[in-house]
């Protein structure tokens, strides 16, 4: 993938961006059977990578958009993100077709909306968040944050554990901060009612170091330009509370773990976490 990304960078072609259609409008050149297929590995130039994917047929209504910064700064990452979106669309389309065939009376078209943004960058590390809304039947849809960390030079995915000398021990040391933040957000969502001690205890039962290291985690921007201010772990509705509570985004400041970072990553972190605007909040 990195070799092709290099070729894309050298191509230097102009981007091609298609306007999003109004609801119910047909997409030019696409009939109702269009499934949004994008053969990422067959793409030869940066301009050919889609800035959006739109599917509008009897089975699936899909709209996916990508941050332009991805294409300009890290084509290899853009390829991976586009491919990931395509895989999700194909899986949902197949499931929707099977559902309609099995129960045509109750079937309603599936819906997926995805928006990818570059949240923060420091050194050769890029932090992304993808807001994903899906509807597959039932009373309501659901949404989540797909969090990603990448080496922007190679396009290789990274995990939170890659940055620490002792990942498990480091996360365990600041779990109290995580549980406290969950409890404070729960109390706020409850309108100020409820006991903090109870919320903290509930959080400790639901979230541990293992779940954070395996969870949806990315770095957040800092009050110091060009640095990361900490990391954020995302919990979708139902993960740690009722659907009505919505999503939880728990930020841990870099001051809580900076001394435990691998030496080559220490200079990427400084300052305090800066706020991030997110869909669904």
TrEMBL record:
<dbReference type="InterPro" id="IPR025303">
    <property type="entry name" value="PdaC"/>
</dbReference>
<dbReference type="Pfam" id="PF13739">
    <property type="entry name" value="PdaC"/>
</dbReference>
<protein>
    <recommendedName>
        <fullName>Deacetylase PdaC domain-containing protein</fullName>
    </recommendedName>
</protein>
<dbReference type="InterPro" id="IPR037126">
    <property type="entry name" value="PdaC/RsiV-like_sf"/>
</dbReference>
<feature type="domain" description="Deacetylase PdaC">
    <location>
        <begin position="72"/>
        <end position="143"/>
    </location>
</feature>
